[in-house]
Sequence to fold (888 residues):
Amino acid sequence: MLDTTDKHIFSFGRGKADPCVDDLHRLGGKGANLAEMSRIGLPVPPGFTISTDMCLAFFKNGRQMPDDLREDIKAAVAHLETVTKQKLGDLENPLLVSVRSGAQVSMPGMMDTVLNLGLNDETVEALARRTNDPRFAYDTYRRFIQMYATVVIGVPHSLFEERLETARERAGVERDQDLGVEDLQKLITGYLIDIEADMDDPFPQDPYEQLWGAIEAVFASWRNPRALTYRALHAIPDDWGTAVTVQMMVFGNSGMESATGVAFTRDPSTGEKRFFGEYLLNAQGEDIVAGTRTPDPLAPDPNSKRRSMRETLPHSFSQLQQLATMLEEHFGDMQDVEFTIDNGSLWILQTRSGKRTVTAGIRIAVDLAKEKLISKSEAVLRVDPASVDQLIHPMVDPNAPRKRLGSGLPASPGAATGAVVFTADAAVEAAEKGQDIILLRPETSPDDIHGMVAARGIVTSRGGMTSHAAVVARGMGRPCITSVNSLHIDHDAKVARFGKMVVHEGEMVTVDGSAGDVLLGKVPTIQREVSGDFATLLGWADEIRRMKVRANVDKAGDAEIARSFGAEGIGLCRTENMLTSDLAVHLMRRVIMSDSERDRRTILDELLPLQRAALVDLFEHMPGQPVCVRLLDPPLEEFLPRDADKLVSFAKKVKRDVDDVLLRAEELKELNPMLGNRGVRLAICYPEIAEMQTRAIIEAAIEAGQKSGAPVVPEIVVPLVSHFKELRYLRDKLADAAADVTRRHKAKIRYLVGCIVEVPRAAIRADLISGAADFFSFGTNDLTQTTLGISRDDASHFLSKYLQLGLIDHDPFITLDRDGVGEVISQAIEKGRQANPSLLLGVTGEHGGDPKSIRYFEELGIDYVSCSPYRIPVARLAAAQATVRNGG
Fold:
């Protein structure tokens, strides 16, 4: 392959594109796709892309473009002038260009763009002569001044809006497009005066000065606040940088045979295979994205009276549909295509894999596989595992009574209830107080991204299915409704009016993003099921994945949910969570207060049936599956009343002297109980508790097996082990208890004994400990705490600062710390399996449901992960993706 690593500018257009090593990384998604579309002969406006390397160099150079890059850009512009037969700054046939950003992954609206660059007081006249349309030329110049001044120079946007509003009032028109040539010339003069007054410098007239400023502004926008927020939300590395594409302008605002729009090859909300999108006649791309005008549909819509593009521009519609289908087949994915029609000529400005809802993403992946455009493995890789979490949670109950406030376009499905606020800042402030928020706006802009992240749902009065609010909400999984025409927000009165109905700030509403309805109050929801395309995709994932997926559950009801989501057993059952009834707690307190082992055993005999009954109920929901039951873990003091009055009351119940009870409570109190007498230490000090629990486990397995005909395989796991002798001593005790049960019941049952690896010493001495263990269960929550020396409960006070400063890449309690905790696990696996090749390995911490961590566990050869019931589908899909990416 040609080495292009020293090259930083790559031209494209007219059926050709410069070769580039690693297109996506160096050219960004936009640049790479423009180059590819040029190669396959699509009508792409010619231009060139400045590589992402130069963005990083820009920041290293003190936010200035390297000098040698300017010469390379001049050469690229000269080539573009030759191709287009136009010239930048020419007074006869001026070249106008757009300057756009483009990172490796789509970041819609997060970075800056400048259109119509190259216009000045002289070239605007040349454009008017060339097009024979002075109104178009001056409107284009007006747009350029406004965009350039806002994006590059930093002039407040409000300054231009005020001038524009005054111009419309003076002309007696309501729309910008109704302003005449003289109106626009006066407006431009006012703009230029205001800019010089605001900035103490005149607006730049030199096209190259304009170009340098625009390129540097686009580079700088890589680190603007909204882009930083978006990257943090979507875990996009900061060191990728953005490419910059400079491209010949084509004009959708040059008359009634011109238009601009966005087309999807499939419906981004539902995944249905239908040509979908919106367009605006006589408009530029900024108009449709900003949502300031309500666009029209590409294809006829029976629910809309608006005139479709197929009816208005039938030839261009047919050509667009054909090219869009070609792009989907070429790239093997649903495409989001930006286009412009310039006086009847169709131009493709961009194509990319379209943002879609989770439901649509699953349907599209399954359909593309069924259509043989991609493989089943590729279909599984197409869906973000973290996003499927949205499909498992409740939706608005279709049978629930509802009071509709207003309706709009169902831009992003799902349901959310919250208190209404009207600004992004208010959404953040309320969310930080723990409130669920619905953000109501006329339309959203990239500057609202922080409020959209904080909100549970988003409603706008303007915009379409492809406006900023819709695209960003779909990417974040937020329900969103756009174009609610009846919505009017009164910021002064702090109310939203839906026609005649009024909602005050802070009042509760429900967003039904699937139906496009805004509902008054909190509307009941129902639980979704894994079915249809979702079930098909998960079935393919199950065929592919190597790792098993279990659930962390303590109750039969949760086990039932886990099985419905595809759990293959239970990876962690916390027995203390089964002992929560008043009787069970009372008996445990009596055990704690007992003066002798003999008394404790007598009381434990009363507690055993309660423990066994809970286990039987649990085991019956997991017939034939492994169920890992953890012996009592928390310190005994947690079972005692927290205050003195309750201790006194307990003393009276058990007819004990109050001073004795208070003394016993004081004896059990520890300064750091989480590192005190708990787990295996508790079982060694009070082996009778562990023996009772073992008997309950074995008896429950026998009883449940007799009822279901498919016995579970109980796995007894000992927490907090750090020494081989601890586990060996306790295992012998458990074996004796289990043997006694099977002898008395004349039954045979297979069971395993293992330990939770949650302290570094257990990992370091895994070679010895594995001699007494049938399996290791990695408790990554505590292992992260003990390895890093961080309390999970207190970490938020400083980890957020670490993340903000880039000292760590992620919260180690959400995504496993591979270099630290991961290395500890890796050593434990290597040593453990060297000594015991048949050692079973599982992960039961919260990381067992995190897709990034699951990929690492696949690399380590972990046998199963275990997570909460609602994370089971996430883990199934993530495990399959990990298998594929690991070469399986």
